[in-house]
Amino acid sequence: MEDFATLPDLASRALGGGVVWADDEFFAAADHLVLPAPPVFAPRTFDHKGQVYDGWETRRRREPGHDTAIVRLGAPGVIRGVDVDTAFFTGNYPPHAAIDGLAADGYPAPADLLAAEWTPLVPKSPLAGDSRNLFAVTSEKRFTHVRLTIFPDGGVARLRVHGVAVPDPRLLPEVFDVAALAYGARITECSNMFYGHPENVLMPGLAQHMGDGWETSRRRDDANDWLTVRLAAPAEIALVDLDTTHFKGNAPGWAAVRGTEDGAEWFDILPRTALRPDTPHRFPVRPGRVAAAARLDIYPDGGLARLRLHGRPVDGFLTDQFRRFS
């Protein structure tokens, strides 16, 4: 698997992504493309239009042409690669696809998007059926929308747009969650992710169940589990939010948060503190220092629904980053 596939899916519905236009969705709605869950398939499940597919499927073309869907990214940013997943589409997948990107201000209507000048990201390329088709992207520009074109027709289960979020600083408050995936924060290391991926703790909204958080296997030694986060911007953290919602018999007993500005020296943001099961915990803190990265230690193991680190970013960082990729 390509390295970019470990990066967040900027198009995911979980981040607010959505399909804003499609020229045809006769057999299956294009909205399926951005669903965060893996596609599923139930053989011999028919509705009035035929076999039900968990994906976008267009009717058969009887003349030359192509079909198109436009996706608004939930987290605009720099795209490192795309995954055109044709899972369960075997005799009805498109043989080729192309991807283009667009950087748009505000909230353009479909007519504006159709008339816009798009940037090619992936040229017309062959696809395999019932497969993940991975394509690296080399552009260093920030995009807000992507356009998937399939040739000539067929079905695609999911479109994953992997990259790094680059928020527009004009749309952010002065103090916000600098550990939010939607604003560009990233998990950089993790001790264990047996039951749940650590990226889940940086997702927006409340966790819906235990599987929507980070959970480690049970430790049988004297160590503890941990993860590290590269923050969306260097900031002095003012509030730590550790949410153990849904984790009742498997919440950590304690947790601690440390920060670093240079990657060498670590300092306390939240000293080791007892946690309660199935509880949102909020701790005002005053570390007195700026952190560019943070480390969460849980003792000894267990599960966490969400991690929020609210702070004021250093002056100019987000503006400089936004200009760099625009």
UniProtKB/TrEMBL annotation:
Task: Spell out the coiled coil positions from the record.
Answer: none
HAMAP family membership: Allantoicase (MF_00813)
GO MF annotations, alphabetized:
allantoicase activity
Protein species of origin: Paractinoplanes abujensis
This protein is called Probable allantoicase
Which pathway does the database say it acts in? Nitrogen metabolism; (S)-allantoin degradation; (S)-ureidoglycolate from allantoate (aminidohydrolase route): step 1/1
Q: Might you give the EC number(s) for this enzyme?
A: 3.5.3.4
The answer to keyword Hydrolase applying to this record is yes
Q: Which Gene3D superfamilies match?
A: Galactose-binding domain-like
One Pfam entry for this protein is Allantoicase
What UniProt keywords are attached to this protein's entry?
Hydrolase, Purine metabolism
Check the record and name the PANTHER family matching this protein.
ALLANTOICASE, INACTIVE ALLANTOICASE-RELATED
Does the record carry Cell membrane as a key word? no
List each copy of the Allantoicase domain by range. 16-164, 184-313
Name the family the entry cites: Belongs to the allantoicase family.
What is the reaction catalyzed?
A: allantoate + H2O = (S)-ureidoglycolate + urea
